[in-house]
TrEMBL record:
It is an enzyme of class 2 (transferase). Pathway: Amino-acid biosynthesis; L-valine biosynthesis; L-valine from pyruvate: step 4/4; Amino-acid biosynthesis; L-leucine biosynthesis; L-leucine from 3-methyl-2-oxobutanoate: step 4/4; Amino-acid biosynthesis; L-isoleucine biosynthesis; L-isoleucine from 2-oxobutanoate: step 4/4. Belongs to the class-IV pyridoxal-phosphate-dependent aminotransferase family. Pfam families: Aminotran_4. This is Probable branched-chain-amino-acid aminotransferase. It catalyses: L-isoleucine + 2-oxoglutarate = (S)-3-methyl-2-oxopentanoate + L-glutamate; L-valine + 2-oxoglutarate = 3-methyl-2-oxobutanoate + L-glutamate; L-leucine + 2-oxoglutarate = 4-methyl-2-oxopentanoate + L-glutamate. GO terms for biological process: amino acid biosynthetic process; branched-chain amino acid biosynthetic process. Acts on leucine, isoleucine and valine. One of its GO terms (molecular function) is branched-chain-amino-acid transaminase activity. NCBIfam families: PRK06680.1.
Length: 279
């Protein structure tokens, strides 16, 4: 496997960064994850816009133009012979003697890796996945796709230990924020589809944004508004979305079945729409 490190394509096993990189020492950086399907980046414009936004919010300059970034991504996929897979892109404030405040010299460090991911299955029949609920212990700017993922990693590990796929997080008022690495949606007992409105407690998911058009096209009753853990527990359907998980129903929550315990109708319809958009 080949990685991209600051202008060079190197063997992944030999790709390394300086131990004084601020990403390594302070988590001073941001990232993006793209899904490519047969060489095409899905929701590409949304991911590039979010990259620019995350970067801007922490005062990092663009390492190159978006057009040049696209060239690097395509070249990395070519060199790895990966057409369908995930691209991980990380941008940090680069190498400087350790000091919390920003260094005078601006030398952002850009790294990228690619790995294959099988194409999504044709349908959701037989799919089941569990989730657990946990307090959201992250910082107050989760709208920035920061590389500081310790609370997310801890939540995901707790989920794994419980035999679950995702941890669904809730804030101090008992309202659901999002998953450890996904956006969360429910179809409530009132048959209304909901996902939390964007604020600084959640990442503006690209899959979430793209799906809003599908929601409208399906004619599903939808409200962009928060919901409580209680509403989550009483939901007919719960599903998560992300570039890596697409649209994935949660069929068990904290050990109890969600709805009738099988993937729901709304999730299945949106999944079908998602597949149609891929092809
Ligand atoms: N995570 N919320 C969080 C906290 C996330 O980390 C992600 C994505 C999402 C969904 O965003 P999108 O639809 O743009 O992928 C929501 C990526 C995939 C990751 O960290 O691997």
């Amino acid at each position: 496997r080949i990685a991209y490190v600051n202008g060079r394509y190197v063997k992944l096993a030999e790709a390394s960064v300086n131990i004084e990189d601020r990403g390594y020492q302070f988590g001073d950086g941001i990232y993006e994850v793209f899904y490519a399907y047969h060489g095409r980046l899905i929701d590409e414009a949304l991911h590039f816009a979010r990259l620019t936004r995350s970067r801007g919010e922490i005062g990092l300059a663009a390492p190159m133009s978006d057009a040049a970034l696209r060239v690097v991504i395509q070249e990395l996929m070519r060199r790895n012979r990966v057409g369908t897979g995930l691209i991980y892109l990380q941008l940090t404030r680069g190498v400087a003697p350790r000091d919390h405040a920003f260094p005078a010299a601006r030398r952002p460090a850009l790294t990228m890796t690619v790995r294959p991911k099988p194409a999504p299955p044709e349908g959701l029949a037989g799919w089941h996945a569990a989730a657990i609920t946990l307090p959201d212990e992250r910082w107050g700017r989760c709208d920035i796709k920061s590389i500081n993922l310790l609370p997310n990693a801890l939540a995901r590990e707790a989920a794994k230990q419980a035999g679950a796929l995702e941890a669904i997080l809730f804030d101090t008022t008992g309202m659901v924020t999002e998953g450890a690495s996904s956006s969360i949606w429910i179809v409530g007992a009132d048959n209304v589809l909901r996902t939390r409105a964007l604020d600084q407690r959640v990442l503006p998911g690209c899959t979430r944004a793209a799906l809003l058009a599908d929601v409208a096209a399906e004619g599903v009753t939808f409200r962009e508004e928060g919901f409580s853990v209680e509403a989550l527990r009483g939901a007919r359907e719960v599903f998560m979305t992300s570039a890596t998980s697409f649209v994935k129903p949660i069929t068990r929550l904290d050990g109890a079945p969600v709805g009738n315990g099988a993937p729901g109708l709304v999730a299945s319809r949106l999944y079908t729409r998602y597949l149609a958009r891929l092809k």
